[in-house]
# Entry
Amino acid sequence: MTGTHPTWRVPAASAGAVACAAILAGLAGADRPRDPGTTVTIYAASSLQGVAEELAEEFESSHDDVTVVMSYGGSSTLAAQIIEGAPANLFLSADDVQAERVADQLGGTTSTPFASNSLTIAVPIGNPAGVRKLADLTDDALVVALCSPDVPCGRLSDQLASTAGLRLAPDTEELSVADVLAKVSSGQADAGLVYLTDIARTPGVEQVVVEGTEAVATSYVAVELRPGDGTANAFVDLLASPVGRQVLGDAGFSPP
# Structure
């Protein structure tokens, strides 16, 4: 540290008393450790990234001394990390399959559906390949990116194609919807199936509307991983509150 500081002169007779007082104050402070506050660690599906950040800020603003730490990824990857012992308080899964997987493995958890989502086609800005409908994704001339069947958006893609009587043959299968969006926005793929909520928040892509997707939806589930964790429970309450519903609705999520 730089700068000029005043010099305090302590009379010789009181110097020992000052030192003694300082030692006693330090010992007293040791008996009363400073509360570092509470950290709640939330593992969330990558499709929740924008809305989860907004909700985390809202939560911190109304809960003194609480810090929310978010970690994002494909739901299946996050579920595996949690089962292996990752120190999460709350898991926000993009489908009930991964939520049930975690609940079955850990036990003592509480699961609460809080939103739903459906798919749409994402294409690069300008739609250079001229994609118009879901059946176009069966064209071998197109480079198509889908989520892996192991993750929620992949299972939902298979379900959507099956409902439409189509068999999709992707050129690349990704571990999260964020990775599909990266392929499309960079022009490495002509089209991909992503969640409806991802289109508005992702630069470099635009939507091709797919009829009937609302009938094939995924349910987002909050899994409280530690029994009696009041902070995680309070965050789940926020998701279900009018404020949480507004934030989720504004981002394009539907009610559970």
